[in-house]
Amino acid sequence: MRHLSGRLFFAGLLALLLFPGHAAFAAGDLKATLAKLDVAAAKFHSTTADFEFQSVQTDPVPDTEVQKGVVYYRREGTNFQMGVHINTVDGQSAPKIVVCCEGGAVKLYDAKLNHVTVLNKLNQYESWFKIGFGASGKELAEQWNITDDGPETIDGIKTEKLEMVAKDPAVRRLFAKVTLWMDLESGISIKQLFNEDPSHYRICTYTNIKMNQAQPRDAFTFKTNKQTTQSNQ
Questions:
Q1: What are phi and psi of 199, to 5 degrees?
Q2: Hey, which residues does 230 pair with through a beta bridge?
Q3: Residue 61 half-sphere exposure, CB side, CA atoms within 13 Å?
Q4: Which H/E stretch holds residue 130?
Q5: 67-to-26, 27, 46, 84, 154 alpha-carbon distances in Å
Q6: CA distance 64 to 76
Q7: Which DSSP category does 181 fall into?
Q8: What's residue 185's pLDDT?
Q9: 97, 116 Cβ separation under 8 angstroms
Q10: Which CATH class is domain 6-215?
């Protein structure tokens, strides 16, 4: 757990998404939920937020890894960008940057190792990325079986809880189920729970959320030099 494998890291990376929803509606009314998501999608341009990702293993040896940093999303129609700037892992400096989707690939830059890992098979994960960038209700319904569990308060914020199971068997092999807690006033997912299997799950929480505001020039890029190495997965 302290050093996530390439597969688990990128599976966890897919948890940096899901920012749908908008406005209040009757609890458990999935049809109304999806309709509100359609409206919110038309207004979505970008999101910036502080994040905390907890990767938990309960068996065979209980362990928890905590990553903290800042995440950036930008979407214009079908074009989208993601930048994940990891600052610390378990409280220790561990600068890493994940960007998507220049050249149809996801890239992870480890500053300490001065190494870039490239995930080329983006088509396998593309639907995951898009649902985090102002996804419409129609887009979600095409990819997921969704249950609206009604309202729940998270850290004093009123949210709507959605449970989602991927229709694609390949996606279900990565995560059996995804649970979202959405702030219906802002249309932001405050918390997500990704169940990988009975002994592994990931909790993602977002704070200091800013929507449709200016983002730094380096939000979706990183600097390399002649000594930077690269590998492909």
A1: -115, 5
A2: 116
A3: 4
A4: helix 126-130
A5: 35, 33, 22, 11, 20
A6: 36
A7: E
A8: 66
A9: no
A10: mainly beta
Burial of 209 (0-12, 13-18, 19+ CB in 10 A): middle
DSSP bridge pairs for 119: 106
pLDDT in tens, 65-86: 999 999 998 888 777 888 999 9
The pTM score is: 0.82
d(CA 199, CA 223): 37
172-187, pLDDT tens digit by residue? 888 899 898 877 666 6
Note the Cα 108 to chain centre separation in Å: 15
Q: Judge whether residue 127 has pLDDT over 70.
A: no
User: Between the CA of residue 60 and those of 1, 7, 63, 221, what are the distances in Å?
Assistant: 11, 19, 9, 37
